[in-house]
Structures are given as C-alpha cells and as structure tokens.
Specification:
215 residues; alpha/beta; 6 helices; disordered N terminus
Length: 215
C-alpha cells in the first residue's frame, strides 16, 4: 500500500540478523527473500540487506532485513547498523556448540547498540544436520526462555521454519508498534478533550525507531 493512498498506512521495520560467521545468516535471508540457497555461500563482508513486504491487518508492512558479518574484524563497522533496529534474529549453528556459546555476547552487543525495544528471536539454524547435532533443542529453548526470546530451529537448506521465523518477528514488531500508537492516540485524545492538544499527527509522518506510520 502506497503512502500516497488516501488513509493509507505504511510500516517500515529494520531487522538485523546476527551471530557468528558461517552459521547460515546469509542463506536464511536469501531463502526468505528469494527462496534461494547457495551451498557455497561466502562470508558476508560488512553488511547487506533485503526488503520484504507482508500484509498484517490489511496494512502493508515492509521489513528491511540486514545481514551482518560475523567476523570480529567487522565489528566496528557493523555496530552502527544496530541503531534503529526494532527486530533481531540471533542465529547459531546446531552442529557447532561454540556458536551457541557466543549467543550471550551477541545479545549484549544488541543491547548496547540498539535504541529501542527489540523483538528478538533465537534461531538454531541447520536443523537438517541432526546426525551431527551438538546443541539440543532443550538447550536452545532454555536459553531463549531465560533471555526472554522467541525460539525456533530452522534449515535454510530445506526451508524448514524460515518463513515462520521471520514472520513471527515482524508480527511481534507490528504488535509492539501498534501498542505504542494506541497509547499515543489515547494521550492525544485526552489532551484534545482538555483543550490542551492542537493538531498533532495531522497530515504528518511520525517516525519512531525505524518504523514509519503515515497518517
């Protein structure tokens, strides 16, 4: 839905995918955005992003999804891209315990650099590698519960839960934003009835975090 449509609304959310190198972040994004998988995918250099749209409650919601490099040498560059993020997928490889052990560090980095409440999901990727699993489903669930995260195991290779994982995060962001909008409009209504409120949000674009709502 275009922001030029009468009464139209458009939302734009920034989401980051974080985690150690080679956990499958780029393939998760390419599977979700283009339904593609590259078995010989190379490490991301810096930051790349894709934009996807979905409809929620009759409104067009766009997610700008940023794939960040996992290597330590890119940390100074990519930390800037956390700013404005309202969603995050924290990814580990179920066949490499070291990537699971790094989740706490990635969560700390997210908290340090993000400016707003972030909808977060812990993603155990490569669940197709069950025969060499090194992190149990129960461990993933326990960590997610302790940190207040959504949790899901995925496979970019065979598409298992990939779309579902992204859409859960996008819907949670939308719900968070809708609650904020409702609160602000209730305050606005109170001020109007009190004679203290004049013309806020009329023919305006309101920007909060990295979402846009056109009124």
């Amino acid at each position: 839905m275009s922001s030029d449509d009468e009464g139209g609304e458009e939302y734009l959310f920034k989401i980051v995918i974080i985690g150690d190198s080679a956990v499958g972040k780029s393939n998760l994004l390419s599977r979700y955005a283009r339904n593609e998988f590259n078995l010989h995918s190379k490490a991301t250099i810096g930051v790349e992003f894709q934009t996807q749209s979905m409809e929620i409650d009759g409104k067009e919601v766009k997610a700008q999804i940023w794939d960040t490099a996992g290597q330590e040498r890119f940390r100074a560059v990519t930390s800037a891209y956390y700013r404005g993020a309202v969603g995050a997928l924290v990814v580990y490889d179920i066949s490499r315990r070291t990537t699971f052990d790094s989740v706490g560090r990635w969560l700390d980095e997210l908290k340090t650099h993000s400016d707003t409440t972030v909808a977060r999901m812990l993603v155990g990727n490569k669940c197709d590698l069950e025969n060499i699993r090194d992190v149990s489903v129960e461990e993933g669930k326990s960590l997610a519960e302790a940190e207040g995260l959504f949790f899901m195991e995925t496979s970019a290779l065979d598409s298992t839960n990939v779309k579902k994982a992204f859409e859960i995060v996008i819907r949670e962001i939308y719900n968070n934003v809708s609650r904020k909008v409702t609160s602000v409009l209730l305050i606005s209504k109170w001020h109007t009835s009190s004679g203290l409120f004049h013309g806020w949000f009329v023919d305006s674009i309101w920007l909060v975090g990295c979402f846009i709502k056109v009124l």
